[in-house]
Amino acid sequence: MDSRVQRIVAGLNPQQLEAVTHSGAPLLVVAGAGSGKTRVLTSRIGYLIASGRAAPGQILAITFTNKAAREMRERLESALGGSAIRTMWVSTFHSACVRILRSEHDALGMRSTFTIYDAQDAQRLMKLVCREENIDIRAHPPKSLSRRVSDLKNDLVTPEQAADDAADQDSQVLAHAYAAYQIRLRQANAMDFDDLIMSTVDVLRSHPDVADHYRRRFRHILVDEYQDTNRAQYELVRALTGTAEDDNHGELTVVGDADQSIYAFRGATIRNIEDFEKDFPEARTILLEQNYRSTQSILSAANGIIANNSGRRPKRLWTDRGDGEKIVGYVADSEADESAFVVSEIDRLRDDAGISYGDVAVFYRTNAQSRAVEDMFVRSGIPYRVIGGTRFYERREIKDALAYLHAIVNRDDTVSIRRILNMPKRGLGAKSEEAVAMHAARWDVSFGAALCDVGDPHPERGPVSGIGKKASATMAGFVSMLESGREMAEAGAAPDAILDFAMEESGYLDMLRSSDDPQDESRLENLAELHSVAVDFHKANPDATLADWLDQVSLVSDADQLADGDEGEVTLMTVHTAKGLEFPVVFVTGLEDGTFPHMRSLIDPAELAEERRLAYVAVTRARQRLYITRAAARASWGAPQEFPPSRFIEEIPDSLIDWRRSESSADAMRRSGGRTGTWGSGGRRRSESFGGGYGDELDDGPVVGSGKGFVPGKLGVDAAKQKRRGKQAGAARGANRSGAANASAGVGESVSDAAAGSPGLGAADGAGPNAGPSVPDTYGLAVGDSVVHKSFGRGKIVAFEGTGRNTTARVTFSSGQTKRLALRFAPLEKI
Ligand SMILES: Nc1ncnc2c1ncn2[C@@H]1O[C@H](COP(=O)(O)OP(=O)(O)OP(=O)(O)O)[C@@H](O)[C@H]1O
Ligand SMILES: [Mg+2]
């Protein structure tokens, strides 16, 4: 045997070895957490290449995050030698699709310079569509339309099909908006995240020659985390692999664990894993049963939890690593006390058990919960990184800067151009903008093309009417500035140079420099950070273009922020983001019914089952030590509220848990008004100021300067001005205070959206501080009332729950969903 092959298969157990060396029929590896599925996938690629069964260029491996792709690449590089793998594709679904679409844009009828719209851009475009199509945005909020269009695309439903299927007026409006949105998207030469997948499937299905080309190329397709693929991704895999009837069908390997499926709200369907054998009758299934990650105590806890989900295939996971430490449980009286416990345990483990900060991860259900933990970490000087939260690339100033660059690359990019047309203020009013939009509509061209007609009328279309002299001159100047940027890009200027040009030339930097708003100072710092990202990209990819950089930026996801070599920091993240990872020490916090499982899931068995899988994922990230904590009272929407223990705690056999502080002592403590814990006694009661903080920062989150690796760019920012506040990972600077509020719309692979709680989170409805305590319980609403909600559209109140400030309404929306909404915050209007 080739010595490389020997090295690759060494140490694999018999089932793993079988999976790695399997040949021919489609292969499904289903197994519980930590059983080596990802390792099998990586080893299989190494084996295929080292044994000569495949050339690197014939392999397409799909991972869930860019970071996982990078790691897989690195492993293979060291196993096979760097140059051997250059032609191999290891990437996420979205990145692979962008690569395909950029080369197959002709088949698609688009130009290769197309822009990728994130969820925010998509919503902006939907807003424009609603305005132009006279859609009543009170009854059909753009955000909710946008989310529903995303769902349709994840199911590969075209606008035509949506129109055919539309049985009621609400779905007709949706179908109409979808069709109009799609036209605008094409006109803007743009694609949203869901389009990336759907269009690729479309191209492969409608162009057999293109499909054949990729099938000949990719002889082996391998997919990790298969349980979280949605219908569109499944069809993509099928189209790329071909079926047994196709001449050139490739070999398919998928690995997954139905118990870890946690993206149902984004359209992921366990069905893809459960029906694999039906879809591929000749398929081979291999089960892995040995867990190499965790101790027996941790495994037993995980099994205890997941066993409560019905309709699953029971698994027998075992480990030879011994029982290990007991699971440590702690009942805090508040979230501050809970965080204090985490801090004191981390200190203790460092002193007594040789654990370093980098070995520790703290998980929570939604981003907003990081605040309490962060406060305590800052006060005690524990270095930490928050993964997720307001994503750096979603900050206003960063979106603005990128919009300039997108507008330079793609002159038809409506959303970007309209975003920056009067940013900084150029004295262009809504009327002038509307005149351009009307010209665009009249001639059926993009907004960008119409804008060019202002200063330099097209021979056929002529000038734009209804625009004053001054506005005309300003618009012409704006167009020519973009044109100069485009010339720079075409001449091959580096992305950072073009960024400099756009930010200076547009006056954007001057606007920030001359402001005395401290937020603007932070915005300058963030732009400097963006500048360094561009510089780094250029250094690493000297031949890459501005468009290449923008692609990379568009596809960044939260989990990608986990930089390597971060030994010295505790990692804070949501459970969604933790998928596929492992840490020696894990704290799962906020284990309360209403927090984790999330409030919304308590009335819906399917959602509760998904929460349980989430808990299973959380617990199985731990290698040696697992902590489970809960706060008996937690600030909830502004006021401390008591929460019962999470049912997931009760599902763990009590004999496995070493309770450091029991229910009864916490209760007694709370009743006597006393406080315990290292920090609890000194601190102001966090919960009192909690609500206010939320509302203030709802839009952008506090803009906090970055720490590590900051290089002041040419943008002229003094690094010393940086406010340090814990270390934040990669691009995510500053913890998000409005994580839940930003949670909406499944953005491609942006895990943050998932992580922050899923679309339709009750708490996400603007946790503002405005509502006072004196408002009557039901706010003038009654059971049976028809209401409209900003995101969910029309609905009917079916019940009220709770009293006073905590009153919630159960509302069944026309989409069929029932939501529980806190009346103080939910923008419910009676109709
Ligand atoms: N045969 C083996 N011998 C030793 N260690 C192994 C073996 N197989 C896997 N491992 C180790 O076990 C751990 C878990 O493996 P891996 O991450 O591949 O599991 P997984 O099934 O993908 O987990 P998850 O379901 O969480 O994604 C890793 O540290 C991996 O290196
Ligand atoms: Mg894995």
From TrEMBL:
Organism, as annotated: Peptidiphaga gingivicola
Family in the record: Belongs to the helicase family. UvrD subfamily.
GO biological process: recombinational repair; response to radiation
GO cellular component terms given for this protein: cytosol; DNA helicase complex
GO MF annotation list: 3'-5' DNA helicase activity; ATP binding; ATP hydrolysis activity; DNA binding
Pfam families: PcrA_UvrD_tudor (PF21196), UvrD-helicase (PF00580), UvrD_C (PF13361)
EC number in record: 5.6.2.4
Protein name (record): ATP-dependent DNA helicase UvrD1
SUPFAM superfamilies: P-loop containing nucleoside triphosphate hydrolases
Biased composition (Low complexity): 728-754
Coiled-coil region: none
Region annotated Disordered, chain positions: 663-754
Signal peptide: none
Transmembrane portions of the chain: none
Alphabetized UniProt keyword annotations: ATP-binding, DNA-binding, Helicase, Hydrolase, Isomerase, Nucleotide-binding
All residue ranges annotated as the UvrD-like helicase C-terminal domain in the record: 296-580
Gene3D superfamilies: 1.10.10.160, P-loop containing nucleotide triphosphate hydrolases (3.40.50.300), PCRA, domain 4 (1.10.486.10)
Sequence positions that bind ATP: 31-38
Catalysed reactions listed for this entry: ATP + H2O = ADP + phosphate + H(+); Couples ATP hydrolysis with the unwinding of duplex DNA by translocating in the 3'-5' direction
Domain UvrD-like helicase ATP-binding: 10-295
